[in-house]
Amino acid sequence: MAKAPRSRPRTTTRDPERLARRLTAWLTGRLPGAEAVDVRVPASNGMSSETLLFDIEHPEPPLRACALRLAADPAAYTVFPVYDLPRQYRTMRLVADRTDVPVPRVLWLEEDRGPLGAPFFVMERVEGRVPPDVMPYTYEGNWLHAANEAERERLEAASVGLLARLHDQTPVKEAGFLVAPGAGSPLRAHVEAQRAYYTWVVDGLSRSPLIEDAFDRLDALWPRDEGETVLSWGDARIGNVIYDGFEPAAVLDWEMAALGPREVDLGWMIYLHRFFQDLTESFGQHGLPGFLRRDRVEARYAELTGHTPRDMDFHILYAALRHAVVMLRVAYRQVHFGEIDVPADPDTLILHHDSLRAMVRGDYRD
């Protein structure tokens, strides 16, 4: 019998009321007489950067409904080693200026840690609805699961279209600030950055034989032709999109943006849905087996761009591997806060260890 998903782990040690007072003090320096009102932390706050929602009370605010992205609390055992808010801000500005991909309007970037204890930026708050992660949208009881097939087809087509437009329209030459350090191709640098991240995650802790086997399998599957380099969103999944009805209204969470082949985003979009679908089926629910299927996503992307996705076994494995490293870090954070114990087999801390192991063996069911 499958185990129930672990409760949502702690994401911050910050005091929301104190944050609200400090935010108002900072805001009056940008807009004399302005006040930050209705400051709140959303229930679905992320596992990496934190979000505050607030309104600006002022006769002529540049925006009234705002969202603030705050670098992660260092005291909360952060998911990533570095939170480069200026990099995210520049990425969103580039996408907004050079593509028709909908991103929230960014207003202010604050690099000084003084006002709120960490860098942050302020952006437009876009209204709409987001496919939930907890419980996943593949479970019954949420708006996307309750939609009909035609509505989900519409959302799927529009979401794949986001990737097509992002990749086709963004001038890579203007995204040089996203180049990963190190020698070699953008894909090599991308994977090496993930190796370095894994090394950081397990520093002083139990290593994951499964993740290390997956890295070895990646090397064996490495593409002969890595393909064109594009701006990769990085966290390309429908849970990071605000929808107006079934059409994208805003694309969120650019902290994993990088340069790489088109297939990096495609693999992530396909696998992150499969992660939720596999989890749902393990609990005896039907889920959404016809939604975001690999063959449909690849065919639609090819139709929109003229580029036929290739080496997708590699890229879907890479997505599952990247997700496994993040999940291992989140699990070790729960250990740090005393929410769970370390099991005898650290690989079991990775919720999708069975599917990742199947990918490494080469017998995963698409």
TrEMBL record:
Domain of life per record: Bacteria
Pfam families assigned to the protein according to its UniProt record, in alphabetical order: APH
Classification via InterPro entries: ACAD10_11_N, AGP_Transferase, Aminoglycoside_PTrfase, Kinase-like_dom_sf
Annotated signal peptide: none
Stretches assigned to the Aminoglycoside phosphotransferase domain: 84-290
Protein name: Phosphotransferase family protein
Biological source species: Streptomyces tauricus
